[in-house]
Amino acid sequence: MSFRPPVRDDLAELPGYHSPQLDVDVRLNTNESPEPPPAGFQQAVADRVAALDWHRYPDRGVRELRSRLAAHHGGDHAAIGVDNVFVANGSNEVLQTILLAWGGPGRSILTFEPTYAMHGQIARVTGTGVIEVERQHDFTIDADQALDTIAREQPIVTFLCSPNNPTGMVEPRELVEAVLETVRPFGLLVVDEAYAQFSTWSALSMFDEDAPLIVTRTFSKTWAMAAARLGYLVAPEWINERLNTAILPYHLDAVSQIAGETALEFEDEMAARVARLVEQRGIIQARLGELGVEFWPSQSNFVLFRPSTNSGSTDGNAVWQQLVDRGILVRNCSTWPRLDGCLRITVGSADENAAFLDALAAILD
């Protein structure tokens, strides 16, 4: 066997990020939209792609898409301009670019667990240390503990996920404001808002050119564009200047830019889709309550639940497998740290949600 150079020691045992992809009738495990974008969107993208100059590089500065995103968020905060927006290949590349610019050996991030696993995963891949603060039993954050730990450890980046994945819970504004003031002398606060359109408030309302605040968003969820891999952030200009030194040239292809620009022409359709999913989320939570299943009130497009009833607990792995046997795939979180026995369902169509609820009722019965 020929010589194979070893990878970095700190990556040798690091597992990758995985989500099972099974051939089932009802797939409710990856927080995708159950509805595609409207037909008019697809035709508009196709027409613009057909007119592309394929022999030319895409707009390196992504100027048009950034301008449209700034205008889109103008209602949230009039001070948000084109230079406050940074766009990349999905919000994961946005997060990676932040840690390429500010992370690395000798520096650390801070997360509140359980939360989105890619915050810690990307940090470790970039050689950045990870400080984990445990959430309370109800998955809320103990503010005093959080602020004390941040002040003591002084992480270069503190992550808040709101709504939080996998719990679906929104962080209160008072907590976000307190964390921002605590990190101000030494670090950045990143508020991951992949599911913000489903929730009651956004940290974008706190935007200030002098504040070390980054708010990340994605087109994958509410815009029904998971296939496009498109994400962005809103931050002060001085932050985006540094991000542009860490990103590869021409990192965002022309087709993705066209898809993002076109999507923003269908805001009303997006809002209507979100409203339908919020209604379905309420139906799911009400039915889980009727079944006596423990769940956490969500302001996202998914619900975390533990399939146990008043008559006793049920093994999460077993329930997950029985759902798969019935052609329904949800996310199995039962072996994740701090989530013993838990599963997570993405809000699907009315028919998909009904199939899940009927199957769960039969399993628990």
- Give the strand line-up of the largest sheet: 2-8-7-6-5-3-4
Distance between the termini: 56 Å
| Shape-level CATH architecture of the largest domain | 3-Layer(aba) Sandwich
Class computed from helices, strands and strand pairing: alpha/beta
Largest sheet: 7 strands, mixed
Ranges with pLDDT <50 over ≥5 residues? none
- Rounded mean pLDDT is 94
Using the coordinates above, name the CATH class of the largest domain: Alpha Beta
Q: What is the subunit organization of this protein? A: single chain
Could you name the CATH homologous superfamily of the largest domain?
A: Type I PLP-dependent aspartate aminotransferase-like (Major domain)
Strand content: 15-25%
Q: Judging from the principal axes of the Cα atoms, what is the shape?
A: globular
Helices, by number, come to 11
As a percent range, the share of helical residues equals 25-40%
List the helices and strands in order. EHHEHEHEHEHEEEHHHEEHEEH
Under CATH, the topology of the largest domain can be stated as Aspartate Aminotransferase, domain 2
Total strands = 12
User: How many individual domains?
Assistant: 2
Protein topology:
Layout: E1 26-28, H1 39-50, H2 63-72, E2 85-88, H3 90-102, E3 108-113, H4 117-125, E4 129-134, H5 143-153, E5 157-161, H6 173-183, E6 188-192, E7 213-218, E8 231-234, H7 237-246, H8 254-263, H9 267-290, E9 294-295, E10 302-306, H10 316-325, E11 328-332, E12 343-346, H11 350-364
Parallel strand pairs: 1-11, 3-4, 3-5, 5-6, 6-7
Antiparallel strand pairs: 2-8, 7-8, 9-10, 10-12, 11-12
